[in-house]
Specification:
419 residues; alpha/beta; FAD/NAD(P)-binding domain; D-Amino Acid Oxidase, Chain A, domain 2; 2 domains; 9-stranded mixed β-sheet; 6-stranded mixed β-sheet; 10 helices; 32% helix; globular; binds flavin-adenine dinucleotide
Length: 419
């Protein structure tokens, strides 16, 4: 089949690889000058099945209201975003009921574990290198209530196979000595040995190179403005290089998938949730964590990528705004230095790179994968805060569905039809 994919981020690049590998003729379109230049550019770098909880935990409304308009909070809801957020926001709240939350968590965790296994296999088969590390992830907690909640969630995720070990602060420091300076503040930690980390941008570049070598076509700096629909099928896409046609289309345009889907009359329940990262050189690794960390209460993650420390986090509901706020970037840095105060003098902060991106978040948590109601159109979008973690499994699943091969997971659980 001739297949056209819109979007060369994590979702599009992995889908392209698996389709090419199954013998299809694949063309991948992106408006940027390089692949993975938008949300997949500088994310937290964590492959964290351990972080499979959807963001609409029961009680999320109270948190959002408490933090409304506050620049120094982990979750920020800008009042001006409210009108555009109404429909998605109501769904987000509806799915925060305990039974939905638990289901979303298990679906994410199952796909994440599968996805990390697929990534391992791909890394071995193609000899991919992307500043990757395979030494698990440590979640740290500063209050007992948050720790207890996370232990409960870890048990729920253990039902689908996620292994974890609960540690007291002494055991956490024994595992990760860089935590010594903040040990007195910790109520405990949870270690997840199967999680990994790595630079998503480098990964996409490496996989794209293999894709091209295998005969795949990458069309950069080509913007898709609309999908061309005739009756109940997609017949082509309008790009700034003319109309392009194929036998089958995959929409993998991250948060912008909603806008493109709308041009064909299709509504996708995805909202852009902005997040920040800061990357700074730490040449001698002095005081750096060997194991990537998630500070759950403060909603930040940090880990080494080669000789760089990547710090990331915060969630801002503010539409498609991509302006960089110094206050939000500072928040991420401050949270990280709270955990590792000795890094303040060691990080090369003057040359640090601040960045922000839009997580494509569904109202219930898991991504949207597989066929759409429009014939010829498949979806791989909406992975939210888990797009790196879920990329390989999602790309493989969509490629299997298009190729008529039995998918490794229950595809219905991730289909658009579940809404
Ligand atoms: C601060 C932050 C930290 C994160 N940390 C992690 C983490 O640690 N672990 C994890 O698993 N996930 C993390 N994520 C989430 C992850 O980065 C995203 O889920 C993932 O990058 C989404 O990939 P995507 O391919 O769906 O979208 P994108 O990467 O945005 O790719 C979409 C592509 O479509 C292209 N495109 C869009 N519209 C058009 C158009 N009209 N025409 C042509 N091309 C178009 C864009 O140029 C882009 O390249 C984080 C996200 C953020 C913001």
């Amino acid at each position: 089949m001739r297949i056209l994919i819109i979007g060369a981020g994590l979702a599009g690049v992995t889908t392209a690889w698996f389709l090419q590998d199954r013998g299809h003729q694949v063309r991948l379109f992106d408006r940027q000058p390089t692949a993975a230049n938008e949300t997949s550019f500088a994310n937290g770098g964590l492959l964290h099945a351990s972080h499979a909880e959807p963001w609409n935990a029961p009680g999320v409304l109270g948190q959002l209201l408490r933090w409304i308009g506050r620049e120094d909070s982990p979750l920020l809801l800008r009042p001006r975003a409210l009108p555009g957020l109404m429909r998605w926001g109501l769904g987000f709240l509806r799915y925060s009921r305990p039974q939905h939350y638990r289901l979303g968590m298990q679906r994410n965790a199952a796909l994440a574990l599968h996805s990390i296994a697929v990534l391992r296999e791909l890394r071995r088969e193609l000899d991919l290198r992307y500043d990757d590390r395979q030494n698990g992830i440590l979640k740290i907690f500063r209050d007992q209530q948050t720790l207890d909640g996370a232990v409960d969630n870890s048990r729920t995720m253990a039902d689908v196979g996620l292994r974890h070990t609960v540690l007291d602060s002494r055991q956490a420091v024994a595992l990760e000595p860089a935590l010594a300076d903040c040990a007195h503040e910790l109520s405990g930690a949870i270690y997840f040995p199967e999680d990994e980390s790595g630079d998503a941008h480098l990964f996409c570049q490496a996989l794209i190179e293999r894709f091209r070598r295998a005969g795949g076509e990458l069309e950069l700096q080509t913007s898709v403005s609309r999908m061309l629909r005739k009756g109940d099928r997609i017949e082509g896409v309008q790009t700034d290089a003319g109309v392009q046609t194929a036998d089958c289309y995959v929409l993998a345009a991250g948060s912008f998938s909603t806008q493109l889907a709308a041009t064909a009359g299709l509504r996708l329940p995805i909202y852009p949730v902005k997040g920040y990262s800061l990357t700074a050189e730490l040449p001698d690794w002095g005081g750096a964590p060997a194991i990537p960390l998630i500070d759950d209460g403060n909603k930040v993650v940090m880990g080494m990528l080669g000789s760089r420390l990547r710090m990331a986090g915060t969630a801002e509901f503010n539409g498609f705004d991509l302006s960089l706020s110094e206050a939000r970037s500072d928040y991420v840095l401050r949270q990280c230095l709270k955990t590792f105060p000795s890094l303040a003098d060691r990080l090369e902060l003057a040359d640090a790179s601040p960045w922000c991106g839009l997580r494509p978040m569904t109202m219930d948590g898991p991504p949207i994968l597989g066929p759409s109601p429009l014939r010829g159109l498949y979806l791989n979008c909406g992975a939210g805060h888990l797009g790196w973690t879920l990329a390989c499994g999602s790309g493989q699943l969509v490629a299997d569905l298009i190729s008529g091969e039995p998918p490794a997971m229950d595809a219905e659980a991730y289909s658009l039809a579940r809404f």
